[in-house]
Structure formats: C-alpha cells, structure tokens
Amino acid sequence: xxxxxxxxxxxxxxxxxxxxxxxxxxxxxxxxxxxxxxxxxxxxxxxxxxxxxxxxxxxxxxxxxxxxxxxxxxxxxxxxxxxxxxxxxxxxxxxxxxxxxxxxxxxxxxxxxxxxxxxxxxxxxxxxxxxxxxxxxxxxxxxxxxxxxxxxxxxxxxxxxxxxxxxxxxxxxxxxxxxxxxxxxxxxxxxxxxxxxxxxxxxxxxxxxxxxxxxxxxxxxxxxxxxxxxxxxxxxxxxxxxxxxxxxxxxxxxxxxxxxxxxxxxxxxxxxxxxxxxxxxxxxxxxxxxxxxxxxxxxxxxxxxxxxxxxxxxxxxxxxxxxxxxxxxxxxxxxxxxxxxxxxxxxxxxxxxxxxxxxxxxxxxxxxxxxxxxxxxxxxxxxxxxxxxxxxxxxxxxxxxxxxxxxxxxxxxxxxxxxxxxxxxxxxxxxxxxxxxxxxx
Length: 441
Ligand SMILES: [Ca+2]
Ligand SMILES: [Ca+2]
What we know:
It is elongated, with a radius of gyration of 30 Å. It has one helix spanning 237-240, and strands spanning 15-21, 27-29, 45-48, 56-57, 73-76, 82-91, 94-106, 114-120, 127-135, 139-145, 152-153, 158-159, 163-172, 180-186, 199-201, 212-217, 225-234, 245-254, 257-266, 270-278, 285-291, 300-306, 319-329, 334-336, 340-344, 351-352, 363-370, 374-382, 387-396, 399-406, 413-423, 431-439. It contains one helix and 32 strands. By secondary structure, it is mostly beta strands. 1% of the residues lie in helices and 51% in strands. One calcium ion is lined by residues 172-173, 175-176, 178-179, 208.
C-alpha cells in the first residue's frame, strides 16, 4: 500500500455541540472569580466604606433564556463597602440597558428608601437609574428612581428566594432634567422587546447625570439581602437581556462539501449570520451570509453548504478547517460564535458514499474515496441488473472524488450504483461496493 500517506480520505467530522452564547459586545459581570475573594480585588473600586467587603460566593444564578452566567455571585447584605466599575463606554445619549439577576432573601420594611444597584456618571459623580427594595412580612417590591428624585415602587408581589431578571432602561435625552427611566422585572418568559415596563418614571425636575459610564453596587442596609449575578450593560434590549442564543453549531463533511448547521433558541433583532472560515485560526475569511429569522422565541434551524474551493471531482487536501458565525443585529452590532473544527484527516480505506440528496430528482452526487491511485469503474444499474449508465471509467488519483448523476431520463424507482477500484499497485486488492438510490419524480 504505497500511497497511504497521500491525500486522503478525508474525514472526521467535528462536532461541537451544546449551549453556548455569543461573545459579548457589552459590559458583562458574572463574578467568575475565586470564591471568598473581595470584590475590590476583582476589578471593582470602592466608592465608600472600608468595612464589610463584598466577597465572591460560590452559588451562580441563572434564568431561562438569559445568557448563562459563570463562576459565582455576590451577596449585598450589609452596611458597608459600596463599589463601582466602569462600563465599556461613556454614554451621553440614547438608551442604556442594565440587566441583572437578583435573588432577594430579605428587604427592609420601612417607609424609607434604600437602593442596591445603579448606573452612574463616574467614580465621584451622580447616580442614575437606581434600583430599590422594600419588603413587607411576606413579599417585597422593587423600586426605581431617575437620580435624586423619590422612587416609585411596584406592588408587593415578588417572592423572597426566587431569582428575577431585572432590567433598568435609562434614556439619556438632550437637556438637563428630562431623562427617563423604566424598570422591567421579569419572572418567566422574557419579553420580545422593551414595550411593556413594569414601572416607569417620566422625566422629573431633578438633574440628569452628564454621562453614564459606571455601574454601582450599594451596601447600605443589613436588612436588604440580595444575591446578585449576571450583570449586562448595553445599548439594546437584545444585547442586554435576550441576545441570539446559539444552541448548536456543527460541521460535517460529505462529498467534498462541508455542511454547516446551527440552531438558535431565541432571537431578537437578528439581521443574520456571516459564515467565516480559516485553516489557521487567524485570517478569518467571510465565505457566505445567511439571513436571520428576525424576532422569535422558538427554535430556528439554519444551514450553509461550503462548496467553495473544492471543485467536484478534485481531491480534498487533508488538514483542519475552522468555521465560526458572526451574528449581526439589525443595528449593526455583532458578536462571534465559538469556532468549530472540521478535520480532514488521513483515512484508511476505500469508501463509496451514499449519494446526496437521496431520494432525488433529477440530480444527485455520488462520492467515493481512494487510498491509492486506481482505475475506477462507477456504473448505475436498474433493479433487474441492467446497466443504465457508466459514470466513470478511467484512472483516478488517490483522494476524495464526487460525480454528478442526472436521472432526468429515468423513471421513478430504485437504482443501484457500483464502484470498482483497481489500485495501480498490482499487489493491492480491488475494492468493490454497491449502494442503492431512489429516483422520485
Ligand atoms: Ca455568576
Ligand atoms: Ca437629559
């Protein structure tokens, strides 16, 4: 078998499955740090208070269809250190969405107001979009205020020790006292858009912040106990709370083409996907585009066939190819999937592949692989054994080959195709295989 190491038969296929989210084009904090370490040692700055540091807890909060958090979480449960952390941008206009997962175990029962989270202008500056808690004996309410104005509250309808997805939407409007803020408390299915806030404050006469550029965590009251995780800040509802969630992404080689398939569980504002390929994990090249299905909460299935660069009847070269998806929102923001790998290794045998598509009308493709240069016969027969067509009768190089078959002159029914490969090496044994295919008109 002299040519075993030549190009070959291509195979192995690679599949990476599972839930994964897109890389994020936004501020994200999952508290994925060492359990027991202090927040001030993990990228957060102390704004006030040097006692009662917040430390990383081991439990990790999650919420259906919200991007999975990782690592641990934190407890806001004392009168002590307050923290801020810059977000990725300095916002001076537009809407900012601040989403987080909160599990409240206690809330102060009082007429006074105490907030636990906020956006902020900068390290020393004013806060905006403040989130409050207030409890009664059995339930609690969330509250919201713009800046220094009095908060408004939801009804006392929320349960202790349940995880809620909370979204604060802060609108920066040109002018000094006209910004507004909305609060969404989500318990169940995440809404498609931001059209129905739980509570909202129209503009108040209090001063607006000059910018929004930090997030702020406040420990002010030991009787407010909040477990916090999964913070995201961005400029769109979809990125903040309901981005495209990719549930699978697979690649499979068949007959010199690579079939990519992927699914999404949720989509908002999805313009579509660029498909990118590389053989080196650098120099990614766009090879195609697939439109998104737009706004929906059900599973969407997508596919793309990469036939570029591999002409029919030419041998594939061994090697590893990588693919990734660039998911693009309607507003132009984008994020990348993880890459998957399609490995074209050296295989070890002759193979006749099942034709594709099958059943077919009238065109199909038959693939076969040779581990050595061979004289190849590929013929089609009807079920009575009559030869219908000779597709190949010539010498072919070692490698993967495909042949098109046009059945437009044949009637519906089952046909067989037979491959005989006689290796040039006279010591080698001939290879023969037969498979069935179905013409369906
Ligand atoms: Ca976490
Ligand atoms: Ca304003």
